[in-house]
Inverse folding.
C-alpha cells in the first residue's frame, strides 16, 4: 500500500505508519471520501495528506512543452495561520522523500503577482481558506482551474461547519463535486457529538443517502483536570477571577509552559495585566487574541514554537491545530461553557497522545464552580456537546448565487439541484430558492423599480447571466461571511503628539463604539499595555504609553458562549444530589447547604421559582440553567406577561444560570392568592404573539438583520481606508430594517434574519425546549428574604449592560440629572 | 442584560431660544417658529434608496414615502404658512425623476397648504421647476440666515443642515448614538430629516469653530422625546 519512498522515510525516522493513517489511505485508494476523527497529536495532518502524496508520487512525469497540470489537492483551513503552518510541516517530509511535489498557500495575504502566477502555473497542492475557495470558484476559468482536482482536504471541520462560513463552504464543495465528479473529500475533525452529520456533509446529498467512510482514532490517555484549589474566598458573582491570581501565578512558575485560556478578549487583557502586576520574577508571559495585529500574533506564535515563553494568555484564536512546543499545563480561567470546547482546549497541552494532559479550571464565581465540575465530569465520560449543524443560511445562499453567476451563466434548475446536494441546504424549498434568485437580481421587492438595473438577467437561452462586470468586482470585495463590528486600527505615537505626525507600530484593532466613548487622556488596556488615548484620525486611533491604576477595558461584541445544554443538565444534577457534592470546594458546599435550609435546592427535573421582598421591591428568581441568551429572551417575554397580569414589573436581569424579575407588587402573594399562575406565566404559548411583538423591536433582530444585509450584499461592507467621507453617507442597517418591516414584512431577508436570531442571539429553540421540559413542573418557594442561591444574580442587577427599551432611560436619566444640577443655587 | 420599563413625563417637543426667538424643536427633526409660522427642515435626501441601483445596490425603495409621510404629519401638527427646506432635499440630481406619482401628489398637497421654499444643497444644486416654484441658494429672514452648509464667515445667527449631527451619549456601560439638533443659542444645525440618512458625530472636526464651545447643546432625539444635553470638551 505504502510506496517505497514513504516506507523508507518512515524507517529512517524510526517511525511506524499509524493504523489510522494506513486505514485512511486504503479507503482513499478505493476512491472513497472519508472523515478522520482524531484527538490532537494523533498525526492527523499527515494522515489527511497521505493519499494525495502517494497519488502524486506515482503519477507519470510531466512532459515539457505540454499544458501545465492543474491543482491535484486542495486543502481548506479555517485559519490563514494554519495554512501557513501546514505548508511548513508538509514541505519537510516531501523534501526528505525527494518527491517532485509543489506546495503553495493562497490566502488574503498572498501578493497579486503570485496569485496570477498560480492561475497559470498552479501548484500540485494548494493550501487555502473558504473565502479564497469561493473567489476561485467565482472566476470565469474555475472549471479549467480545477480540471485535475482529485482530493479536497478539509481541516478542523468540526469548527468550520456550524457557522455561516461552513454554509458557504458546503455550497462551494457542492460546486467542486459538480466540476469534478470523481473528487474525494477528506475531512479532519476533533471528536464531535454526531459524526454522521459530518460524513453526510462531505459528500453530495443526491438522495441516495451516501456518506463518507469513517476512520476514528481512540482518544489518548484521559486528561487530568481539576478545579484549581484555592485558599481564597470565591466570590458570589463577577467574571474576573481576580481572587485566584496569586495561585495561578504559582502554577505557572511550577510548570515549563502554561497555556491560559479565557472566553473573551477583555478577560485576556485583564488576566495578562494582573499576572504581570505580580510577576516579580519577570518570567516571560505573552498575550494572544484575535484583535491584536497579525505581526504581534506571529511573534508570539514564533516565540511559543521556540520554547522561549513560559505562559501565553489566549482566546479561541489558539483553539485550533497549530503546533506548539512543550505545553505541560492548561489553565482555563472562567467557566468553559461546553464540554467539547474544554476537551479541545485541554488537548492543546502535550501533543503526545499517550501522555495525559494536565489542566486546571479557575471558576470566577460560585455558579462557575458547579459548571467547571460538570465539565470535568463530562470529560471523564467523554461527553460531547458540539452544536448541531443547522439549516443553511439564506443570506449566504444569496452571496453564493451571485458568485456562481460571476463564474458562468447558470440554469436555475441545475443550480438548485447542486445547492440542495449540500447538506445544510438539503431541505431548501424550490420557492425559497426562487426568491433568493429574485433577491440577487433586483432586491426582491414587490415594487418593481429595480428591474432595469438587475444584477443578473435571464437571457433567451433561459440562463441567468451577470449584467455588468462591475457586479463581479463588487462580489469579490464583499465575499465571505465574517461580519465584524466597525473597528479602528490602534497605532502608537509619542505622548501629547495628538493625531499629528507619523505613527509608530500598529497594535491591533479595537471596536469603534468603545473608542468613541474616550476623551483625550483617558487610559485603556489593550495589547497587554496601558494606553493613553490621543485621538482618532480617519480609521486610526492614536495612543501612547501610559501609567494608570484603573484603565478601561474594551468590550468586544461576541465571544460569550452560552452554557451548553449538556452542561446545564449536569449542573442541575450536581445541585440536586448531595452525594455529588464531595467534589466541590467546602465554601461552595456551605453555600448550597444554606440554600437547602433557607429555601430548597433546585430539583433536577423541575424548575425552582423563588419570590421574596428586598428593600421596597418584590423579586422573583427562577433557575432554568439554559444559558444567557435563552434567559434574556425569557426575561423580555416574562416582563410583558407580568405587566398584563398587573404585577407591575420594573426590570429583569439574566445570567447563564438564572433569571430575576423585580416589580412593585408582591408576586409571591399574587401566586398564593391565585391572581398569578406560574404555569400560565411560563406557558409555551409565550413563544407566539408575545415573541413576535417583542422581536420586531429587539436590538438582537436588528443585529441579525445587519449581518444578513452585509453577507447577502444588500448593503456594502465598509472597507478600511475607503470610508473617509464618514457615516453620513452610509445607510444604517437599522433604518433599512425598520422601513422594510413596515413596508415588506415578508421580505426574504427578514426571514433570514429571523431564522438567525431564533438559533443565535435569541436561542428561541432552546427556550422552547425548556418551556416544554418544565411544563407542569414548577416549584414555587415564597420566602421572607433573599435566598443564598439568588445572591449572585441580585449582585448582577445594575452591573449588566442594558438593552432595548431601557435605552430611553439612559437619555432620560442624563437629562434629569442635568436639570437637577441647573436648579442648584 | 437588564431592562427597566418606566414611562416618564412627555418630552415630545423642546422650546429653546435662537437669536432671541422661540424655536420649537420637534421629534421629527424639524424646527418650528411659532411667531412667524415657519417650519424648517434639512437633508431629506429623497430617493436615496434608489440612488444605488446603478451600482447594484437595491435598498428598500420606500424611503421617500416614509420621509414624506413624516413631513405630512409634522406639517399637519403645526399648520405652517411656510416650509423651508435647508438643502439636500433630493439625494442626487436625478432623484426628482425617480419620485413615484404618489410622492409627487404628497408634495403638491403640501404646496397647496404652505408656501414651500427650497434651498439648494450639494446633493441637489438644482431642483426642477415642476417641484420647486421657489429655489434659492440661501435665505435671510428677520435676523436669521438660512443656508445648507453652515458658514463660519457669517456672523449673523444662522440655521443650516448638511452635517447630519448625531450625539453619542453614555450611560449604564453603553454608548447610544442618536440624531440631534446642535445649537449654541446663536447658530443651529438641524438633524437630517430623511429616513435613510446617516449622521456625523458633533465631536467630529467638521463641527470645529461653528459653535461657541461652552454654550453648545445637543438636543438629542430619542424614541419617546428630546433630551437637551450640554456637549462636553471635544475629542481633540
Amino acid at each position: 500500500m505504502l510506496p517505497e519512498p514513504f516506507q523508507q522515510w518512515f524507517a529512517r525516522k524510526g517511525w511506524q505508519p499509524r493504523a489510522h493513517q494506513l486505514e485512511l489511505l486504503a479507503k482513499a485508494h478505493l476512491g472513497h471520501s472519508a472523515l478522520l476523527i482524531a484527538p490532537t497529536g494523533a498525526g492527523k495532518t499527515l494522515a489527511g495528506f497521505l493519499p494525495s502524496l502517494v497519488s502524486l508520487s506515482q503519477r507519470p512525469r510531466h512532459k515539457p512543452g505540454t499544458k501545465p497540470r492543474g491543482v491535484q489537492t486542495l486543502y481548506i483551513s479555517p485559519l490563514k495561520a494554519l495554512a501557513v503552518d501546514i505548508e511548513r510541516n508538509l514541505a519537510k517530509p516531501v523534501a526528505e522523500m525527494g518527491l517532485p511535489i509543489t506546495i503553495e498557500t493562497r490566502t488574503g495575504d498572498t501578493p497579486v503577482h503570485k496569485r496570477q502566477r498560480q492561475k497559470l502555473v498552479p501548484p500540485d497542492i494548494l493550501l487555502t481558506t473558504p473565502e479564497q475557495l469561493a473567489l476561485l470558484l467565482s472566476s470565469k476559468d474555475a472549471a479549467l482551474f480545477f480540471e485535475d482536482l482529485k482530493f479536497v482536504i478539509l481541516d478542523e471541520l468540526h469548527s468550520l461547519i456550524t457557522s455561516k462560513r461552513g454554509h458557504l463552504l458546503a455550497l462551494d464543495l457542492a460546486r467542486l463535486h459538480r466540476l469534478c465528479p470523481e473528487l474525494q473529500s477528506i475531512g479532519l475533525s476533533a471528536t464531535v457529538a454526531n459524526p454522521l452529520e459530518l460524513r453526510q456533509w462531505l459528500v453530495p446529498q443526491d438522495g441516495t443517502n451516501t456518506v463518507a467512510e469513517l476512520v476514528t482514532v481512540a482518544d489518548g490517555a484521559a486528561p487530568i483536570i481539576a478545579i484549581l484549589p484555592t485558599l481564597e474566598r470565591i466570590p458570589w458573582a463577577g467574571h474576573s477571577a481576580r481572587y485566584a491570581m496569586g495561585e495561578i501565578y504559582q502554577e505557572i512558575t511550577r510548570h515549563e509552559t502554561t497555556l491560559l485560556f479565557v472566553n473573551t478578549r477583555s478577560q485576556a487583557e485583564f488576566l495578562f495585566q494582573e499576572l504581570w502586576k505580580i510577576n516579580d520574577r519577570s518570567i516571560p508571559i505573552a498575550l494572544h487574541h484575535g484583535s491584536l495585529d497579525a505581526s504581534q500574533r506571529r511573534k508570539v506564535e514564533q516565540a511559543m514554537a521556540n520554547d522561549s515563553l513560559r505562559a501565553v494568555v489566549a482566546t479561541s484564536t489558539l483553539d485550533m491545530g497549530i503546533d506548539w512546543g512543550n505545553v505541560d499545563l492548561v489553565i482555563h480561567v472562567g467557566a468553559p461553557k461546553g464540554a467539547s470546547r474544554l476537551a479541545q482546549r485541554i488537548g492543546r497541552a502535550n501533543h503526545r497522545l499517550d501522555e495525559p494532559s494536565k489542566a486546571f479550571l479557575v471558576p470566577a464565581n460560585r455558579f462557575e464552580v458547579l459548571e467547571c465540575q460538570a465539565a470535568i465530569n463530562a470529560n471523564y465520560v467523554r461527553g460531547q456537546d458540539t452544536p448541531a449543524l443547522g439549516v443553511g443560511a439564506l443570506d449566504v445562499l444569496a452571496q453564493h448565487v451571485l458568485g456562481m453567476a460571476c463564474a458562468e451563466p447558470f440554469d436555475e434548475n441545475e443550480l438548485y439541484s447542486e445547492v440542495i446536494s449540500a447538506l445544510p441546504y438539503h431541505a431548501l424549498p424550490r420557492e425559497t430558492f426562487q426568491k433568493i434568485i429574485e433577491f440577487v437580481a433586483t432586491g426582491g421587492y414587490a415594487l418593481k423599480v429595480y428591474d432595469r438595473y438587475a444584477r443578473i438577467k435571464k437571457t433567451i437561452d433561459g440562463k441567468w447571466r451577470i449584467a455588468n462586470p462591475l457586479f463581479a468586482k463588487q462580489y469579490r470585495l464583499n465575499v465571505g461571511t465574517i461580519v465584524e463590528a466597525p473597528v479602528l486600527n490602534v497605532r502608537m505615537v509619542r505622548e501629547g503628539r495628538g493625531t499629528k505626525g507619523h505613527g509608530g507600530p500598529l497594535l491591533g484593532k479595537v471596536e469603534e463604539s468603545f473608542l468613541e466613548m474616550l476623551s483625550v487622556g483617558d487610559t485603556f488596556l489593550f495589547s497587554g499595555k496601558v494606553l493613553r488615548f490621543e485621538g482618532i484620525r480617519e480609521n486610526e486611533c492614536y495612543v501612547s504609553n501610559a501609567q494608570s491604576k484603573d484603565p478601561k477595558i474594551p468590550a468586544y461584541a461576541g465571544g460569550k458562549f452560552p452554557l451548553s445544554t449538556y452542561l446545564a443538565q449536569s449542573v442541575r444534577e450536581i445541585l440536586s444530589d448531595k452525594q455529588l457534592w464531595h467534589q466541590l470546594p467546602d465554601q461552595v458546599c456551605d453555600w448550597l447547604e444554606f440554600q437547602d435550609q433557607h429555601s430548597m435546592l433546585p430539583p433536577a427535573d423541575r424548575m425552582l421559582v423563588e419570590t421574596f421582598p428586598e428593600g421596597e421591591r418584590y423579586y422573583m428568581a427562577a433557575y432554568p440553567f439554559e444559558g444567557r441568551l435563552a434567559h434574556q429572551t425569557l426575561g423580555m417575554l416574562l416582563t410583558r406577561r407580568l405587566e398584563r397580569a398587573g404585577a407591575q414589573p420594573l426590570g429583569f436581569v439574566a445570567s447563564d444560570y438564572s433569571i430575576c424579575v423585580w416589580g412593585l407588587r408582591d408576586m409571591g402573594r399574587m401566586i398564593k392568592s391565585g391572581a398569578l399562575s406560574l404555569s400560565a406565566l411560563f406557558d409555551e404559548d409565550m413563544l407566539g404573539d408575545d415573541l413576535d411583538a417583542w422581536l420586531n423591536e429587539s436590538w438582537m433582530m436588528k443585529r441579525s438583520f445587519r449581518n444578513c444585509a452585509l453577507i447577502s450584499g444588500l448593503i456594502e461592507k465598509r472597507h478600511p481606508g475607503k470610508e473617509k467621507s464618514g457615516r453620513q453617507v452610509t445607510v444604517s442597517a437599522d433604518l433599512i430594517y425598520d422601513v422594510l418591516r413596515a413596508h415588506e414584512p415578508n421580505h426574504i431577508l427578514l426571514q433570514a434574519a429571523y431564522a438567525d436570531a431564533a438559533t443565535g442571539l435569541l436561542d428561541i429553540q432552546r427556550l422552547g425546549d425548556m418551556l416544554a421540559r418544565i411544563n407542569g413542573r414548577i416549584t414555587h418557594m415564597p420566602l421572607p428574604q433573599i435566598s443564598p442561591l439568588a445572591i449572585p444574580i441580585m449582585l448582577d442587577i445594575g452591573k449588566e449592560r442594558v438593552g432595548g427599551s431601557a435605552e430611553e432611560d439612559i437619555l432620560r436619566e442624563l437629562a434629569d440629572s442635568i436639570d437637577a444640577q441647573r436648579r442648584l443655587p | 442584560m437588564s431592562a427597566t420599563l418606566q414611562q416618564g413625563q412627555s418630552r415630545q417637543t423642546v422650546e429653546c431660544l435662537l437669536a432671541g426667538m422661540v424655536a420649537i424643536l420637534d421629534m421629527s427633526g424639524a424646527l418650528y417658529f411659532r411667531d412667524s409660522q415657519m417650519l424648517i427642515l434639512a437633508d431629506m435626501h429623497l430617493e436615496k434608496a434608489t440612488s444605488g441601483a446603478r451600482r447594484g445596490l437595491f435598498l428598500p425603495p420606500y424611503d421617500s414615502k416614509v420621509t414624506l409621510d413624516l413631513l405630512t404629519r409634522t406639517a399637519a401638527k403645526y399648520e405652517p404658512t411656510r416650509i423651508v427646506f435647508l438643502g439636500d432635499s433630493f439625494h442626487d440630481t436625478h432623484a426628482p425623476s425617480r419620485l413615484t406619482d404618489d410622492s409627487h401628489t404628497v408634495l403638491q398637497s403640501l404646496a397647496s397648504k404652505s408656501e414651500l421654499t427650497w434651498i439648494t444643497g450639494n446633493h441637489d444644486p438644482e431642483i426642477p421647476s415642476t417641484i420647486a416654484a421657489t429655489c434659492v441658494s440661501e435665505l435671510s429672514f428677520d435676523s436669521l440666515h438660512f443656508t445648507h452648509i453652515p458658514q463660519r464667515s457669517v456672523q449673523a445667527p444662522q440655521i443650516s443642515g448638511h452635517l447630519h449631527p448625531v450625539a453619542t451619549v453614555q450611560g449604564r456601560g453603553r454608548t447610544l448614538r442618536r440624531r440631534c439638533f446642535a445649537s449654541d443659542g446663536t447658530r443651529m444645525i438641524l438633524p437630517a430629516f430623511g429616513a435613510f440618512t446617516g449622521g456625523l458625530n458633533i465631536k467630529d472636526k467638521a463641527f470645529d469653530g461653528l459653535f461657541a464651545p461652552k454654550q453648545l447643546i445637543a438636543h438629542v432625539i430619542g424614541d419617546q422625546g428630546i433630551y437637551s444635553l450640554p456637549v462636553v470638551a471635544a475629542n481633540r
